[in-house]
Amino acid sequence: MTEKTYREALTDALFLEMRRDENVFVMGEDVVGGTGSPHAEPGFVGGVFGVTGGLHEEFGLDRCIDMPISEAGIAGTAAGAALAGKRPVAEIMFCDFMGLCLDQLMNQAAKFRYMFGGKATCPMVLRTTYGAGMNAASQHSQSLHPLVTAIPGLKVAMPSTPADAKGLLSTAIRDDDPVIFFEHKTLYTITGDVPDGEHLVPFGKARIVSEGDDCTLVATGRMVSFCENAAQALADDGVTCDIIDPRTTSPLDEDAILDSVEKTGRLVVVDETPPRCSFASDIAALAAGEVFSSLKAPIKQITGPHSPVPFAKELENEFVPSPTKIRDAVAEVVNFK
Amino acid sequence: MTEKTYREALTDALFLEMRRDENVFVMGEDVVGGTGSPHAEPGFVGGVFGVTGGLHEEFGLDRCIDMPISEAGIAGTAAGAALAGKRPVAEIMFCDFMGLCLDQLMNQAAKFRYMFGGKATCPMVLRTTYGAGMNAASQHSQSLHPLVTAIPGLKVAMPSTPADAKGLLSTAIRDDDPVIFFEHKTLYTITGDVPDGEHLVPFGKARIVSEGDDCTLVATGRMVSFCENAAQALADDGVTCDIIDPRTTSPLDEDAILDSVEKTGRLVVVDETPPRCSFASDIAALAAGEVFSSLKAPIKQITGPHSPVPFAKELENEFVPSPTKIRDAVAEVVNFK
Amino acid sequence: MQLAREELEQAYKQMKTIREFEEHLHREIMTGSIPGFTHLYAGQEAVAVGVCENLTEADFITSTHRGHGHCIAKGCDVIGMMKELYGKADGLCKGKGGSMHVADMDVGMLGANGIVGGGPPLATGAALAAKLDGKGSVAVSFGGDGSCNQGPVFESMNIAAILKLPSVFVYENNRYSEHTHCDYVIASESIASRVEGFGIHTVKANGFDFFEVHEVMKELIAKAREGNGPCAVEFETTRFYGHFEGDPQNYRAKDELKDDRENNDCITIFKDKVTEAGLLSDEDINKLDEEVNSLIEESVDQAKKSPLPNPEDVTTDVYVSY
Amino acid sequence: MQLAREELEQAYKQMKTIREFEEHLHREIMTGSIPGFTHLYAGQEAVAVGVCENLTEADFITSTHRGHGHCIAKGCDVIGMMKELYGKADGLCKGKGGSMHVADMDVGMLGANGIVGGGPPLATGAALAAKLDGKGSVAVSFGGDGSCNQGPVFESMNIAAILKLPSVFVYENNRYSEHTHCDYVIASESIASRVEGFGIHTVKANGFDFFEVHEVMKELIAKAREGNGPCAVEFETTRFYGHFEGDPQNYRAKDELKDDRENNDCITIFKDKVTEAGLLSDEDINKLDEEVNSLIEESVDQAKKSPLPNPEDVTTDVYVSY
Ligand SMILES: Cc1ncc(C[n+]2csc(CCOP(=O)(O)OP(=O)(O)O)c2C)c(N)n1
Ligand SMILES: Cc1ncc(C[n+]2csc(CCOP(=O)(O)OP(=O)(O)O)c2C)c(N)n1
Ligand SMILES: [Mg+2]
Ligand SMILES: [Mg+2]
Predict the structure, then answer these.
(1) DSSP alpha helices (H): ranges in C86-209?
(2) Which residue in A314, C116, C147, C294 has the fewest CB atoms around it within 10 Å?
(3) Pocket of ligand 1 contains residue B75 by CB under 6 Å
(4) Looking at the domain that runs over B2-194, which CATH code has it been given?
């Protein structure tokens, strides 16, 4: 175990997997940063968030490929390379830009195997950043995991800790299906203990963040710590919560969620997307269909409002679910009769 | 009232709205069909589904614009024209192709007004087709209304009858916000009474298709008639249903749905998308949060499976919710204890 | 025409197989036994075959909605394809893909594609894989005149060029995208001149003549194999049927189709050339025709007898593991 | 330099306003009082102003992530912009947009854009609206060298060309997209030659010289107004700051920035030209500088004093009605 940042944990996984399998390569805008510059040695940036930093020094520019600002081209090239036997790890700088390459993800990568009768594999990983919290405004702050979770054929991972960042990314790279990998912009600098050497976290297996009796909280990414924060405050009032981080929204560890709701009888789902057709509603609907008889209170969803993400701090803070709102929601369902 | 097909009803709306407001124009691939051909007078096709047929004869090629196969260009041009004061009605031939122009819808059209502090309007309509039932396989059979329903800033309409087709399209064209308008491929040939002259169906006001006591069925588009079919069979067994067609998934007539569920105590949501982060889960979660105390049984979602839409008839029929499956689901919740 | 006898026979047989495959479908679609959307390649055979005869199974192609010709030319099993089009359980894609999604990884056929312009980005990726593997494979993307207006296609050409990928962009200009004439919708002087704008060496050639296609491609593909980066071709060609079955085609000139069938039928042109040059005799041709006909008959026969898919299989083949 | 004295003063004032606006932000970002992602336009002023001085409020522009210059040049209220960047309730976009989304429909400014390549399709639509209205308006899209690899940008150029729209594509080639040099990432000989491939008349010009920009644009915009279809320009230019604040810029040549500041500062070049030619005196310039400085001071002052947005307003302005 070594204490690492979330960012370092991701870089760690990339180094290990690229060493392990020469079919793995990284590609994206400025993932090296400066390739082909007439003025400088390439390799200064390593991604605007620094996750691919240093890789080209060990693996060379053949396996660390700076790409033009062509998101469709990036995702399509990755999908084609994967179909042809490679294991590309492509970077789309902000998940907001998936609007430019959704065809390549939704109609191509996700559907090859099915359309081709099970005879193709597309082992690509598309790493991207998401989430509000940096005043980056409407086009650089979205959380678009529901969009891809809805698409059969894709898998979707969203680590909330440095250890999971490493373990899920390693698993994603070895996975034979296309994986969309969401890194929360505000988590890059958090630190935590990360296993050294090979570390694989299986897909579809939730992390039980904390255990309690009165309510189940389901959250991913940055929202997990917001839930922990809320749960601590609630504990002071004698209310204890299960906090469940699904880790991957597709496949989803339905059992972990349903078992917990059967135990607590109450469910609050927290996510920083707008509310409609969301991952929060997905989980709420799951419970309403599968463990109805155990429910003691309405299922609450704490999400952003039905609006884009605003720029100004005061507005953005209001957009994002807060520990206070989470706490209030739990209190409400616990007091429901 | 005149008996018309769904297709004719749509064309009717286009004629009326283009006469009423010279800012309205249509654009898309082959919406005229043959503009600029060195060999023929343009105007043979009027859209591959025939909806824009004949318009150019009355309104000329300035207001009926054949476009290249450039979905991003089409949607972006429409968004820009709308921002500049026009009311474009753009056609994207199959909603599956929205993967190519999602940026223009999600990051541009949907967000202008918000990002610009309420000082812009983007009164565009994007007409598109959706749904399975024609053996058109994975890339031409999707139902992507959840994708756009999730996006704040967009409105989403899905007519299920000829009368609503006309009324909702007229409303969409006059609406000052961007509207994604879904036409089900298999409904073009259905017939029904359609009001002559101006006919406006308001957004956010559900159609109560039928009334009953035991269960609420919520469905849109083609699934509405499937529900009617199921409800008839159930009526023979003495089980009666409210069938609610929201007409627009955004804005959503929450009251109509919730009032009904409060009355019946049971809810089955039917949609032909895959299950995850879907419109079905959206409605289920709504009820689980808002009318929990009225619920007498688990909320059921009847959707397609978590897979792409297959090609062969036998597989496609299995993918799409059937009246039998709907009936069984209602029977199950009615018998629940 | 520096081709060996077997090569000529092979080329003719491939072209003829495509033609008869499509003629069969043309008749059969009317009867309703072929479900879904089917776009026929008849008329363009010289392009698919002229290109693919320069490729091996280690090379990749991506195709279009009008993909049967490319599939057959690249070596997909004809019987498996016919079964697929009939929507049968033992079709090449188990009845899940159909006409617009025929594919066979084993022969480097990365799929027909229902998205116009969907192929080139994938071919770019396959070309990148080929470059990384360093074994001299190339990736060819086929695309229609209409596809050359899709943004991802442009992006692919730029990417292939900056990364110097062994990528060949083949544009089959059959003058129409659905009902739209290429001159209306393509702003450039030609597709070729537009592609040149990306710094990609581009050739314009006659797609009615197998020999011209074959020769042009031989040189270009060889160069791509050697690591000289991407190249492109614009082939003049024609489709013998409407965009879809029942298309009245009144966007075409009055005698255009008749004229094309009489003067621009690539199979007639090929036959005339090889028989006039004494390379193959009428008898040879007849023999090949018979082989083709019995293959098509066999494929139809088997396709009709093949089992329907099991409804339960709707949820298989979505993931490798889930 | 056929410009009247007021025009010269106006041009200088606009360029200087942009420069001082950016210099203020550059200092202020360090302090943390400017939230979010801010990209500075300093160094490129001659392009924005040289273009926009040929436009009226009835004309449209679309901009980029590096949009402050275009906004000011097109006539957005500078005080409203400053308030917006400070995230204030009475900012031009009520604090909802910020740097990457400054817009003002009233002056035909259709928005900065956080999506690289997001603007040109919108400008194409505005140009279509202008054509339909038939009043001689034009739509100009600004884009960086990096944006010229985005598919939707290509699609826009083709659409503008086939529909003969009054659309002007301005490419500001400042040699870098983030850390990437344009030569690596653009396959064509130049942006201009690529655009020419779309059958669009394209000019390459010196973007350091306001007068060259102004003259080139005057002619092109006039032609577009007259219905001659789209045209394009590639301007050579430079950005004086990093892509983001704190960017060490070690992808640039050793003395590149120093050199650009010394020899390619468009404001210095302008000043030297007009004073040498005796069109404006040093005193005139000083007076204008003072006006600019007090405007910027005033804007900062007001911005700092302006009220913060009300959290409840997070859900307003999503729809006209819902
Ligand atoms: C992205 C997308 N847009 C539109 C269509 C509908 N469509 C199918 S084929 C076609 C025309 C294609 O023209 P071209 O590329 O010239 O190929 P051809 O049909 O002539 O072989 C169109 C518009 C599609 N399948 N995909
Ligand atoms: C679609 C998209 N991809 C990537 C980015 C991230 N990004 C912001 S600015 C930029 C570089 C743009 O370069 P250029 O077009 O030359 O403009 P410049 O920054 O030089 O003004 C990139 C890659 C983005 N904002 N949008
Ligand atoms: Mg064509
Ligand atoms: Mg640049």
Answers:
(1) 119-133, 151-162, 182-185, 191-196
(2) C294
(3) no
(4) 3.40.50.970
